[in-house]
Amino acid sequence: MTERRAEDLRDEDVLDLVLEGDREAFSILVLRHRSRVERLGMGFFHDAEEAADFTQDVFLKAYTALGSFKGRSLFSTWLLRIAYNTAVNAKQRRRESLPLDPDDILPGDIGADETHERGETIRAVRAAMDGLPPRQAVCIELFFGYSLKYAEISEITGFPVNTIKSHVFRAKKLLRERLGIGPEVDDAL
User: Fold this and answer.
1) Longest alpha-carbon distance in the chain
2) Where a domain ends, among 71, 94, 117?
3) 44 to each of 100, 145, 176, how far by Cα in Å?
4) Helical axes 48-64 vs 75-94, angle rounded to 10°
5) Helices 26-45 and 48-64 meet at what angle, rounded to 10?
6) Of 77, 94, 111, which residue is a domain's last?
7) For residues 184 and 141, what is the distance between their CA atoms, to the nearest angstrom?
8) Domain range holding 83?
9) Which region holds residue 95: left if phi is over 0, alpha if psi is between -120 and 50, else beta?
10) What's the total number of domains in the chain?
11) Average per-residue pLDDT in the chain?
12) CATH of the domain at 21
């Protein structure tokens, strides 16, 4: 490493060091960006162990692809695109949608009737989500499921912000129609 401290180096400077043969410098990038990648992994997999494996996989992919980084975007944007694509591919391989955990929806002790009703609601939402066009489904999952802002979704997916807004709007409309929800419930959906 150079005489400069790691925290004084920009990501691009660290990348230059790695590409010049300083493999240990990559750990600086891992430390800087691990939490965002792990957060994305938790959003997709809802399991700390899976998110940790996912994070390791993403950084391995990024390290092996460093030569393809052209600098047209920030390193963090490039890395999150790798993370997003890795997560989407993993979900598609498992052929499962993002799980809706009933405990995330209604906390506490509930009776058998409410448990049944909750299960039916979750199945209806999953069915409605499964029928969305893929880009709309991704945008609405990231927007509502992970509380990401349009700019963050754009950074992850590569879709323009206005396209994301349009996808979220259209997905909300389709979900309302499929679930039989009137526009008066727009705040919730």
Assistant:
1) 66
2) 94
3) 11, 9, 24
4) 120
5) 140
6) 94
7) 21
8) 6-94
9) left
10) 2
11) 80
12) 1.10.1740.10
Token pair recorded at residue 36: 């965002």
Instruction: Answer whether 40's CB lies under 8 Å from 84's CB.
Output: yes
- The CATH number covering residue 168 comes to 1.10.10.10
Model confidence band, residue 177 (pLDDT cutoffs 50, 70, 90): confident
What is the three-state SS of the chain? Answer: CCCCCHHHCCHHHHHHHHHCCCHHHHHHHHHHHHHHHHHHHHHHHCCHHHHHHHHHHHHHHHHHCHHHCCCCCCHHHHHHHHHHHHHHHHHHHHCCCCCCCHHHHCCCCCCHHHHHHHHHHHHHHHHHHHCCCHHHHHHHHHHHHCCCCHHHHHHHHCCCHHHHHHHHHHHHHHHHHHHCCCHHHCCCC
Is the Cβ–Cβ distance between 1 and 25 less than 8 Å?
yes
- Tell me the per-residue pLDDT of 69-111, one tens digit each, with 9 for 90 and over: 888 888 988 898 899 889 888 877 765 444 445 444 444 555 6
Percent of the chain with pLDDT over 90: 30
Return the closest-CA partner of residue 26 out of 59, 57, 55, 70.
59
